[in-house]
Amino acid sequence: MYKIITFLFFTFLGFSQNPVAHTKGLIESKKYGLAQQEMLNYLKSNPNDIEAKELLGDAYAYQRKWDSAIEQYEWLKLNYPKNANFHYKYGGALGMKARSISKFKALGIIGDIKRSFLKAASLDPTHIDTRWALVDLYVSLPGIVGGSYSKALEYAQQLEDLSKVDGYLAKGYVYEYDDEPKLAEKYYKMAIKVGGSVTCYDKLTTFYDNQNQPGKAIGTLEESHLRHKRNAIHYQIGKVCADYNVQLNKGEKCLNAYLANYSAKDGVPREWAYYRLAQIYRHKKDKSNALLWINKAIAGLPKIEVFKDEKALISRL
Q1: Taking the model in full, what pTM does it have?
Q2: How far is Cα 142 from Cα 156, in angstroms, rounded to an integer?
Q3: DSSP state letters, 55-122
Q4: Vertex 256: Cα angle to 253 and 262 (nearest 5)
Q5: Element housing 211 (H / E)
Q6: What integer pLDDT is reported at residue 144 of this predicted model?
Q7: Contact (CB, 8 A) for 39 and 61
Q8: Among residues 257, 317, 314, which one has the least CA distance to residue 290?
Q9: Is pLDDT of 205 > 80?
Q10: Which sign does the torsion angle of CA 109, 110, 114, 117 carry?
Q11: Where does the pLDDT of residue 5 fall: very low under 50, low under 70, confident under 90, or very high at 90 and above?
Q12: pLDDT surpasses 80 at 263
């Protein structure tokens, strides 16, 4: 009798659980395949559930199944044409598909991408993600097919009107691509001053890295670490030191600190820190330690080609 009651209790719980809410949890847990299957099953008996359709599209998008995601978002935007987010997601899925196919084929869908983002922007004057998408689109496209730095700056200004930090970051991004490094640096620094988030510091660090200014990149990372105390920054400093053959003792110290405090949430596997240490020791002409660390990197991730390339460089010392 106890077993029957227990079975009925848990069966009731299973049927009473909201499948849409459960699917949201699956997506948050990055279980995208399970989320996809759950929504496919649910939509068989609830074919017009808007939230379920959107979640199915999201599950496909996270798995880079762009055609399937486009199909869901297209249905949503056609049936709910005044919903800005559906136009934005449709344009975004099209944009990601365009990146995965030939440039010739991508030209055929650029118009649809732009129209979707512009429609979303007109429907919702506060939609920040859409304006970021338009900034990126106008920066990325060649002028011959509609790219325009001036248009990108228009939407960057709209972002600034909505959010100072987003606007400054967007302007920094546009000026960086438009080969205006002084203006790019100015706006990235303004974003740090106003927001000071990890993202703001990362953008300025990446900018300095792209400009081949390792000293400034390291200084920005150190400032970020003072403010945010993130172990991942130790790896980033070590990477810059190793890549540019500068401040090697500092790089070695930071990489050892990264390994000593490592956890999965830091993002970069230990093996990459081993690889950076090997680079540093190669720069120092310390062959034995360089081989020690590169062998540890290869043992952990044997398929990474740059590790093997580094070992070949060390072997020639």
Answers
A1: 0.84
A2: 18
A3: HHHHHHHHTT-HHHHHHHHHHHHHHSTT-HHHHHHHHHHHHHHHHHS-HHHHHTTHHHHHHHHHHHHH
A4: 135
A5: none
A6: 59
A7: no
A8: 314
A9: yes
A10: positive
A11: very low
A12: yes
